[in-house]
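Progress against Task 2.4 (sequence-to-structure conversion) is shown through the following example record, which the project officer requested during the mid-term review.
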Amino acid sequence: GQVRYSVPEEAKAGTVVGRLAQDLGLEAGEAEARRLRLVAQGRRASVEVSGASGALVVSSRLDREELCGKSAPCALRLEVLVERPLRVFHVELEVTDINDNAPIFPAARKNLSLSENSPPGSRFPLEGASDADVGANAHLSYTLSYSEHFSLDLQKIEEDGESLFLVLRKSLDRETIPVHRLLLSASDGGRPSLTGTMELVISVLDTNDNAPQFNQSVYKVQLPENAGLGTLVVRLNATDLDEGTNSNIFYSLKLLFPLDGREVFRTDSNTGEIRLTHNLDFEDVSLYRLQVEATDKGTPPLSGHCKLLVEVLDVNDNAPEVSVTSLSVPVPEDASVGTVVALLSVSDRDSGANGRVRCWVWPASPFGLEATFSGSYSLVLREALDRERVSEYEVEVRAEDGGAPPLRARRGVRVPVSDVNDNAPAFAQAVYTVLARENNAAGAELARLWARDPDEAGNGRVSYSVAEGGVGGGWRPASSYVSVDAESGRLWALQPLDFEELQVLQFEVRAVDAGEPPLCGNATVQLFVLDENDNAPALLPPAGSGPEAGGVAAEAAAALGSESGTLWAWAAWGAPAGQVVAKIRAVDADSGYNAWLRYELWEPRGKGPFRVGLYSGEVSTARALDEADGPRQRLVIVVRDHGEPARSATATLSVSLLEAAETALAAGAGSSSSRSAAGAESGSGAASAATNVWLVVAICAVSSLFLLAVVLYGASRW
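Structure tokens generated for the chain above:
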């Protein structure tokens, strides 16, 4: 802790201030043994430690005014040192004031010259006395030696403190008393009180006995701070009742406050006009206190005084100032409502309504302002953000004060929005229809798929893949037929496609972004394989026989057989025209026009006894048969499809011409499995006609489906 003592100033040498050793906790005799002493300070302390008793005593004159001046309290900080062991203690010594200083006037004598015509009540400022003491010891009161002409007046003015005036109570007469000698006394508030005096020597002048007088003692003027240079502040008027040169007045200006405003005003010494010579600024100085002196030209000159208070009125000459004190960008697009984006400070140097500022955000945006405390605002998020819709906001904070007209300020804040993975890749179509011709080359491009992800960077980087499974490929997955490039979305075939094996393949393509967590989108691809004419017509084996018949066949009305790859049939002499002799049966593995077959008689050419149904394949008599046609006819029949280019197969039919009885025997010797062929002749013909009708219907349906697929494919591409 710290030891504190108090001693009055001017205490005699040897005065005990305090039992230092005892207060520091030292035993009797220990102070001298451990060399208790004061450490030398920068200024003389006027106290010392008694070696024998360890007491702190006054060693020389203590003068509080010399040590501390007008500061109160007057505290001296001392350091006390003891040895064995070495320790340092801090001691604070307060020197209390005693009334040892009398009030002092600036001069022992003050000469005043007063006109004999000075009216009673005239006031003349006097310089007061000063006292070096503090507190009540420095509180002064004034008295004046008795005079029937003069008295004192002490005024307490808030702006100027105390003012001392000599007041004329009775008119002067130089001829009676040319000089008045008065004693002005100042007494302090000490006990006992001390007094200082000053002699006032007042000379009464016989001439110019009227001093200039202003209309009022204090003038108050208000000026806007934007008043121009040369503006008339006030026209002062002081009057002097004397005549001639004693009534000629000149004016002078003294600036009381502030001291740095001496160049702001200028006085016309002749007219008393005070004009503005420097720009005013309410924010720097709002009030000027001036003292104007009016002096006549008499001998001796007389003067009158007045105070001029110039109040500067605020005008709206300062626009608001907006500054950003903190900025947290970029803002993630999933930031919650209420997130603080920036802290702003708004100020206006004007006062009153001119300094009241309102702020808002322009243009309308998901951001708003919240006032935290006076002059501070927070830019906060008011709505949810979507970077894919707006990736960056240019927010302008506008401020407007309450002046007339109002002044405005603006501050732009750029708020970028950072991306989060909130958008899954989306294909342009939910279903893609792809047309591919069979027998395409492996690696051929089938289509290009594209999925859009509006996110950026990795969140928007899309990779493609074919989902496992698929419909239409049988037991084989779709990935065995097609593949998709992971980066470009190019769909290409892994192997040539075969329409006869696969007509439609439906599968899903998946698009996955690189976000965390990743998001995906799917699209269905319907791959239609278009038929090519890559299969020739194949002749079916004869009815009732196995596949070993060699792939060629004939169906006879009476009897049918084959020998060495040649079809043979029997016909009776005299058979009428139109009688069916045989039927050529063939199929084509293709579809549509490529599978629509037509039958042509290639040999013999010209007008022979037989003809072939163009689409039925039935071989019938073209006319009645006679012996001139010979015992056997060899027919070469070509079966063609409608593909481009057309493919064909050839069948050779040998028809034997017999008598009717022999024809019946040949029919009975036919295949055992064809015993009922003669009885079913009419049914076979009807079935052939029905087959032709359904074949035409199937061809039209397939053609319509093909045209519809082409139109859909073209529309999806467009």
